[in-house]
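Example (one chain per record):
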Amino acid sequence: MEVKPWDDETDMKKFEACVRAVEMQGLLWGASKLVPVGYGIKKLTIMLTIVDDLMSPDNLIEDYLTCDPNNEYIQSVYIVAFKKI
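Predicted structure:
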């Protein structure tokens, strides 16, 4: 998953903490890294595991990551790769 901040002045430690603070049954956060986008802006690329029967990725994005108070730091969230096991 790629999570993008609003601008280059976003505190990236708080940004990642904001993402990882979302706790739901069936959600497990994995490894992450900051990837340069341009003009000093970096995006957070983070791996996660979701138990399909307990939650959905759309619910995570729409109801938790892109709404208050997280939208103070998070501009957009994209699913880069999806692998169903």
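Caption: The CA atoms of residues 26 and 55 lie 6 Å apart.
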